[in-house]
Specification:
Blueprint (H helix, E strand, L loop, with lengths): L6 H14 L5 H23 L5 H7 L4 H29 L1 H21 L3 H29 L2 H32 L7 H17 L13 H24 L4 H24 L13 H31 L4 H7 L1 H21 L1 H22 L10 H23 L7 H35 L8 H7 L3 H8 L6 H38 L6
Keywords: Antibiotic resistance, Cell membrane, Membrane, Transmembrane, Transmembrane helix, Transport
Pfam families: MFS_1
Membrane topology: Multi-pass membrane protein
């Protein structure tokens, strides 16, 4: 790993210490951690919050489903594209000013979105929200890694990863509650309140730190990284909608892969002056942490795609109750994230990641084995709980492996790399596990539609929710159609879950084999 640091960077560290005085005491560190966690929660809650308001937006804006999905996805696209460049800018200009600016941009954009009179204004507001989120997210983790002493850093990263992992579910629950008891526009009250709290706490408690670099900003690397991320995430988001072999999908894939290849070549050429020194991926810590985080968030996002239709279309639950059903998994995930640093201190980071992957894979296997229409929530709860524990154990050491692989003056970039990996994993998991679920459902339901009116059967093939909606119009066939769709969904569920078990198993073997060699744990 390249940890060479220029005299100017070393001097900057001394300046940071002098500027902040003595090392923050326990109370100050706790306040800093709360401040950055609240800021992170605002960003994470906005990723998934609008999912519960799709129907409301479509009606109010008279918008198509495609437009509604763009309103939701454009935020993630802007966020992911700008994470690396803005993380590097934060390292140079100062992490506290960047965090304050990001919170201000994000807050104004959230207010604008909540008041948006048209779909076009909403789209623009969501893009700006994504820009603000990209200013906030990498800085929250960079503040932790550059401020907390080594003996406290793992525990603080555990809290951060717990909020990053479980915060989306908690945000979805609060959003669903607001939609049920008030109006969908109140969804934006939550991030605005969180931003206001984070702003006040950041102004009074978060110290500033920055890099003094002898190299100019890597503009070429920043542009190439943004194009690569946009192209690849666009493919993963739009592939299921336009078809994996459609012109738009193939064009996005070609642009994304070309930009990625160009980024790697450019960064290798710039070496120490690069935005991200790609040579560091030769280190097993960075590579192992990145792959683990990619898989963990991919499976976690894919699980959400599977669970919500099960709760709503198979069990007949409301959006609020469906979100509440995810809370046990989120709570255990956050708790395990906090405990992971202690386990890593005893057995090593790589062994802790492997344990988390093993437990997560066991949870997937439990759900695949015992899920049933008649068994309901009880048939999947043990697997969900195991997933929560396993994910929490895997996330913290993988995040620490990524941030620990880059020097202190590049912590904005290290944090951004962590966040980009999460976003790519999320998009990949939704696309692949969602596709497996859909394919499994269609393959199973075809053989169960004998005697169903042709028009209703065609609707039922589109998905379990479509089948439940059209069933009332099929007269005496309603019960049979609903049962066929629900059972076919469970069959597709099992196919997706076993695929997840296979991915987890391969990652576990990889981590176990590499852990047997000398490592930097």
């Amino acid at each position: 790993m390249n940890t060479n640091r220029s005299p100017r960077a070393t001097a900057a560290d001394g300046e940071d210490t002098a500027r902040g005085g003595a090392t923050p005491d326990a109370r100050q560190l706790r306040t800093i951690l709360i401040a950055v966690s609240v800021a992170l929660m605002a960003v994470i809650a906005s990723v998934s919050g609008l999912n519960v308001a799709q129907t409301h937006m479509a009606v109010e804006f008279d918008a198509s489903q495609s437009t509604v999905l763009w309103i939701i996805n454009i935020y993630t696209l802007a966020l992911a594209a700008l994470l690396l460049p803005l993380g590097a800018v934060g390292d140079r200009l100062g992490r506290k000013p960047m965090l304050l600016a990001g919170l201000a941009v994000f807050g104004v954009a959230s207010v604008t979105a909540g008041l948006a009179p048209t779909a076009e204004v909403m789209l623009a507001a969501r893009v700006v929200s994504g820009v603000g989120a990209a200013m906030i997210m990498p800085i929250t983790l960079a503040v932790i890694t550059s401020t907390f002493p080594a003996e406290e850093r793992g525990r603080a990263i555990g809290v951060w990863t717990g909020v990053a992992g479980g915060g989306g579910i908690l945000g979805m629950f609060l959003s669903a509650t607001l939609v049920d008891v008030a109006d969908w526009r109140w969804l934006f009250v939550l991030p605005v309140v969180l931003v206001a709290v984070a702003l006040a706490m950041t102004l009074t408690s978060v110290p500033d730190s920055r890099e003094r670099s002898g190299h100019p900003f890597d503009t070429g690397g920043a542009l190439l990284s943004a194009v690569a991320v946009v192209g690849l995430i666009y493919v993963l988001q739009e592939g299921p909608e336009h078809g994996w072999t459609g012109p738009a999908t193939l064009t996005g894939l070609a642009v994304g892969l070309a930009a990625l290849a160009g980024f790697v070549a450019w960064e290798l050429r710039r070496r120490d002056a690069s935005l991200l020194d790609v040579r560091l991926f030769r280190e097993r810590g960075l590579a192992g942490g990145s792959v683990t985080l990619l898989v963990v968030f991919g499976v976690l996002a894919g699980i959400s795609v599977v669970l919500f239709p099960f709760f709503q279309a198979v069990l007949g639950w409301s959006g609020l109750l469906s979100t509440l059903a995810l809370m046990p998994m989120a709570v255990l995930m956050m708790a395990a994230s906090g405990l992971a640093p202690r386990l890593a201190a005893r057995v090593g980071a790589r062994s802790t990641m492997a344990t988390g992957i093993l437990v997560s894979g066991a949870g997937l296997a439990l759900m695949a084995t015992f899920v049933s229409v008649d068994g309901g929530y009880a048939s999947i709860l043990p697997g969900m709980l195991a997933m929560g524990v396993g994910m929490g154990l895997a996330m913290t050491p993988s995040t620490e492996a990524i941030t620990g692989s880059l020097p202190r003056e590049r912590q904005g970039v290290a944090s951004a790399l962590n966040d980009v990996t999460r976003e790519l994993g999320t998009a990949l998991g939704v696309a692949l596990l969602g596709a497996l679920l859909s394919a499994g459902y269609r393959g199973a339901v075809d053989g169960r539609l004998h005697g169903i009116p042709p028009e209703a059967a065609d609707t039922a093939r589109e998905g379990v929710a479509n089948a439940v909606e059209v069933a009332d119009r099929t007269g005496p066939h309603a019960g049979a159609l609903v049962h066929a769709a629900q059972q076919s969904f469970v069959d597709g569920w099992q196919q997706a879950m076993w695929a997840g078990v296979g991915v987890m198993g391969a990652l576990f073997v990889c981590l176990t084999v590499t852990a047997a060699r000398p490592s930097g744990d």
